[in-house]
Amino acid sequence: MTLKKVIIIGGGFGGLSAAKVIDDSLSDVTVIDKTNHHLFQPLLYQVATAALSPADIAIPIRSILNNKRNTKVILDEAIDIDKSKKIVKLKNSELAYDYLIVAPGSRHSYFGKNEWEKYAPGLKTLTDAVTIREKIINSLELAEKENDQLNKIKYLTFVIVGGGPTGVELAGAIAEIAKKTIIKDYKNFKPDDAKIILIEAFPRVLNTFEEKISERAEKYLSAMGVQIIKNTKVEDVNSSGVQTTNGFIITSNVIWAAGNQASPLIQKLNIPTDRAGRIFVNDDCSIPDYPEIFVIGDASQLKDDHGKILPGTAPVAMQQGRFVAKIINAELAGKPRTKFKYIDKGNLATIGKAKAVGEIKGFKIYGLIAWLMWSSIHIFYLIGFKNRFRVMIEWIWYYITNKRGTRLIVGK
Amino acid sequence: MTLKKVIIIGGGFGGLSAAKVIDDSLSDVTVIDKTNHHLFQPLLYQVATAALSPADIAIPIRSILNNKRNTKVILDEAIDIDKSKKIVKLKNSELAYDYLIVAPGSRHSYFGKNEWEKYAPGLKTLTDAVTIREKIINSLELAEKENDQLNKIKYLTFVIVGGGPTGVELAGAIAEIAKKTIIKDYKNFKPDDAKIILIEAFPRVLNTFEEKISERAEKYLSAMGVQIIKNTKVEDVNSSGVQTTNGFIITSNVIWAAGNQASPLIQKLNIPTDRAGRIFVNDDCSIPDYPEIFVIGDASQLKDDHGKILPGTAPVAMQQGRFVAKIINAELAGKPRTKFKYIDKGNLATIGKAKAVGEIKGFKIYGLIAWLMWSSIHIFYLIGFKNRFRVMIEWIWYYITNKRGTRLIVGK
Description:
Structural class of chain A: alpha/beta
CATH class of the domain at 114-257 in chain A: Alpha Beta
CATH architecture of the domain at 114-257 in chain A: 3-Layer(bba) Sandwich
Distance between the termini of chain A: 54 Å
Number of helices of chain A: 11
Oligomer: homodimer
Mean pLDDT of chain A: 93
């Protein structure tokens, strides 16, 4: 008997969860990813802000799956999908499938203004994180040797576009760096010279959370010296700074934390998508007319029982990954499909040292207790005992000494 | 009273040791480096072979010197030195000095064949180390998806050129990766498919050590599956492999560990150098006719009392840095100069897990005991308590589990 071929595109939260649950004694499994590692994206902003090293939050997909005897991992890029021939095209080869799980994730989106990316990098990959880290440290170095006051202000102004969880976390962490933890190493400027500005188009930050939580987050950020500019849109980003609907900000440091766009691979499926490029999937996460193709994670759009679109978070992707793997296992054993149901375990965002906000099962939590919960959940979900240990040590170390560990400029 | 101006070019072992010892209440001190970090080069091969993260062996120069109130750190490149005007030219500015300590280090040298660098990267900086690490892991990934047997061999053959300490350490570590620690994650090739070849022009590896030590090192390497080709020179390196005086080796992985050339900045001093570009310095490390200019570390050439050239190692650079700083302190207090005397504390090279060779004060040591000594010395000399702790944890972890921690491809 030849086994059915299952291909999983993407080794993120969705794809990896599926790969772990699929029974590879019933099928030949192949996982394809452009990078060699699974990335723990919720902590990516800590790499970007010199708190953690890349290796602390990334682990080779190959080593995670090395106990699966019939699961292959391939470092390659899926560039096309032929639905009728059931083939995935890679850069120099192609692979046939019986089941296909598409979990390619999303990139940040500049709403059609891709030329902004050069000046306002986003944060999705390790490369992005290291780029942002080097930009921040380099700006402080440039400010240190700059004598012209206007240029110094430009180097010491940090603008974060987008007040969602990533933007809020970045703004808090950059405020800590520039105003507290490393400022004492510099002799040519003072903490007050550094400006951290968070721009949000909506009337409040964290607008997917409850209003009370947004208020608290804004209070924390303000106390840390972050200036929050709300109801404001970005109209242009260039080498001099950011043009907003509320005026121009001179800066050489813009970070983009606004808007996502599903991976371009999704377009190859030729299925209707929403404005963010996400495919409207059936309630078993398959796509219309092709029950053997599933799209999961933040490249798909699915609504819960109340008509609310599921967020593009790790828990949704993981639950979908496991769900789809179980469907395939069941179908190979001749059993029927079920319907995906998301179990919401809550939502947290951290804002600087020992402060966080969030809601868990209807309860709002704030401050140290929220931060402790945030920390333990993130350590728990990190893959690999050593990574958990290392990250815990880094956090304890930082908590005690206020020193950030990875302030390196490695690139040329 | 205006203080005398001391400029230190380079934040490596030599420059940093000088900066720590110089009394900056007697002088204005400026440290200039192209990178923002001091790098613990003796462990660089462990970053290149996925055992350690960049942040484990590098620390911002700024933070090391932040308790020195009158010492400035500048991230910039010294591109010229005007000896008569006593000025150092940076990229966009210039600085005057009364004393100048030149400690720019060296790069690897291709004996005039710079076109080889593209195919045979060397190992001097963090960027080099990360490049080599990604090349090694990428080759294993390519071998995994390659079906053509000849291409597979090409990807799985690793050639290290140069059997000095760096070459020996790299060969041992790559043998461990390719034949032992991560091979079980790959399903399309076996440990024996991986070939590690060490090419040495002399009749033995580690030729600056005693013969007996070379023999032992070769024995260890052979036992680990490293093929040692001696009395052999490299004639060409290209995309297909390496042409040696003993035949052609097909490979896509060549690492260069042969030959050093002092930093090009040294040429700007217009003083006679040896073939490796090192300046012949006076016995107080100053250069002829310019007692206010010192050149230290592996950009200088100095002989000991027996007429033997001091090696380009960290201990020599550190001792010279401290020595020169003391000369300046003394001279500013009106005291005379002394003569540099190197105290040789021994020499160790490590070869894979829990094995090393070396000589300490005339005694030869081998095996586990040498490795324990090597480990403790390297941890002791690492800067920063946290780095010591982290590296120790990584080594213990690796010793127990045989898992390498940082097998990431971060670049695109």
